[in-house]
Amino acid sequence: MIGNFVYSNPTTLYFGKDACANLADALKAFGSKVLLTYGAGSIKRNGIYEDVINALTVAGKEVIELSGVMPNPTVDKMNEGARIARENDVDLILAVGGGSTIDYAKAISVAAWYDGNAWDHFFVEQKDPQPGERIIPVGAVLTMVGTGSEMNGGSVITNPVQKLKIGKVFGTDVMPRFAILNPEYTFTVPRKQMVAGIFDIMSHILEQYLSGDDDNTSDYLAEGLMRSLITSSRVAVKEPENYEARSNIMWTATWALNTLIGEGKSQDWMVHMIGQAIGAYTDATHGMTLSGVSIAYYRHIMAAGQQKFARLARNVWGIPSAGKTEEELASAAIEALADWIKEIGAASEISSLGVTEEMLDGIADATFIMTGGYKTLNHAEIVNILRESL
Amino acid sequence: MIGNFVYSNPTTLYFGKDACANLADALKAFGSKVLLTYGAGSIKRNGIYEDVINALTVAGKEVIELSGVMPNPTVDKMNEGARIARENDVDLILAVGGGSTIDYAKAISVAAWYDGNAWDHFFVEQKDPQPGERIIPVGAVLTMVGTGSEMNGGSVITNPVQKLKIGKVFGTDVMPRFAILNPEYTFTVPRKQMVAGIFDIMSHILEQYLSGDDDNTSDYLAEGLMRSLITSSRVAVKEPENYEARSNIMWTATWALNTLIGEGKSQDWMVHMIGQAIGAYTDATHGMTLSGVSIAYYRHIMAAGQQKFARLARNVWGIPSAGKTEEELASAAIEALADWIKEIGAASEISSLGVTEEMLDGIADATFIMTGGYKTLNHAEIVNILRESL
């Protein structure tokens, strides 16, 4: 059943090899001052920086640069960006990078003109900007695929002192007004980052899929996205510059987390909650924290959601039902996921991400407990799942 | 491969049992004069008219009513609506009905302030409104499911004198600004109309799916939508008031034709072209014209697209590959579609829609020939397909 909801998505996407040729036009809708944010500077080595600066020049923009956005953007970095955006009174924040950079731009977007502690207000207390509060528009040039941040309101910020990594889903005003999606811009991403992104996509889909017992169109769409992702991931890990595979993965990532496949249904999100807590403790790559805990988590909740795991086996992994019990089928789905994690080279063990036995209790404490999945976890169960994931 | 495209969809959807409770709020964004369009008046018998008038009253709107929109809206009716919209200088056209009524509202939207022959300009010559040309915003309350008109720019208008039924896909300015989607509003639709809508949805998906030989995420999404539709249609024909089934069908219809599953890929659309020509000759229900010609058309083109038909058999109809050639599998997909048409009660023969042997040449003449599918048809082939569909 499709439940009650409001759907609205204001992001205009420019997709394809020549997508960046639209950037100068897309910039016309905004004022003259642009805050250009990016990460460690890889965009200066692969030509993307030049494409973007050219478009900004053609559009006649005054550019303020803010680089050094880290993979897990911190509160301090957010506050620095907010100050720069405010002092320069920028009209647009243009994020060039992956999910971290776009998430970061959204955080600045709301924090710049907020008088108070933006971390406490928007992230810890999960408050929304109120009507009349100034929000700076965000645009994006995507260079790394996975988070779906290019077409949603999500923003994840880390507080290393408090050991908290918190995601906030903002509304349509904070979503990117436009995003440039050129699959070739992702070719030079290091293999590990590509694989982490691929698992992040799979996890987004599973978080929305593995909940509910009703018949729901969203679940069929989720199955389609997973089948496409599995097919293309197997090509991409062998041939990172295969345009067909990389373009499919890019498009799958966008639709895996722009609300479509979660509309009108319950959702889980515990893998992300545990993964984010690991990220706060270790600064590990997001997608790898998810692959590292997924198998132990799914084995733990399998009995409670057996029917859906069995459906996952049949409809996504193509495992024949004949001669198998529902329980065997459900288990086979999880083992197929475990095999695929190894096949693409994602992390199977969180010890490889720097997690130690001593951290487990703290990570479990830092984990937000969600209630939409097949089973609501307690502290001890989270510690057990983490231990089994070591 | 996902090709190059721009994606943007401005429609806000309010979905669910209480969706109409959002209408008064949604109306606030527009001026005071609303042109309310609807069909033969069934909305006055099922309570929907009252819900809509209440919302218009709460929102303080002045309402001009324009009823009598027919299943295949005509040029004369479009011109009448355009005149009324212009004379009253309306700020919004609110369509309450199915695809015909919403298509009609879009046609008025562009025709009202166009100086000249709107039929020739927008439909025959397929021109787009130019920047600066006034477009009246459109809103929709959906009461019949199938066309996807609630979230796209499509509008189909019929010229009975010229015996032409032409679809035009307008841009984002003409797309509904909002749409109210309450599955319960579709419960009282006559069974034949519900079934015609269900086949229309299937046809929209197949038109986009049955083209191209590459690996494309869009095709996986299409498979998911088809599986959901087949499952829910089997419930809905037995229990028309099954909310789960009707809500899934409603949501599937929207995403079957709001550009998502066609992005970045080639498309066919010949079933619609032939079906529309039949509609111009017979005034038959749109969805039934599509079911009536689909099987003969697909048998005719099967050899050219064998691989995709075989994939349809495996991934949508769940037909096991074992022991079958690709050709046998492909054929099985078409026969499964033929069986499903009978099962849900859609038309299998166009003679039942009033088509006679004498009309075939004229219908073939009135058929626009598209080139995106597996085979480009000529006049004689269209006549043959029509004859086999009698």
Keywords:
homodimer; 390 residues; alpha/beta; Rossmann fold; Dehydroquinate synthase-like, alpha domain; 6-stranded parallel β-sheet; two-stranded antiparallel ribbon; 14 helices; globular
Summarize the structure.
The structure is a homodimer of 390-residue chains. Chain A has 390 residues and is α/β, with parallel strands linked by helices.
Number of domains of chain A: 2
Write the CATH fold name of the largest domain in chain A: Dehydroquinate synthase-like, alpha domain
Mean pLDDT across every amino acid position of chain A: 97
Tell me, what's the shape of chain A? globular
Q: Let me know the CATH homologous superfamily of the largest domain in chain A.
A: Dehydroquinate synthase-like - alpha domain
Sketch the topology of chain A as an H/E string, one letter per element.
EHEHEHEHHEEEEHHHHHHHHH
CATH architecture of the largest domain in chain A: Up-down Bundle
The share of residues in extended strands of chain A comes to 5-15%
Counted beta strands of chain A: 8
Which stretches of chain A are low in confidence, meaning pLDDT under 50 for 5 or more residues running?
Answer: none
DSSP summary: helix tally of chain A: 14
CATH classification, class level of the largest domain in chain A: Mainly Alpha
Helix content of chain A: 40-55%
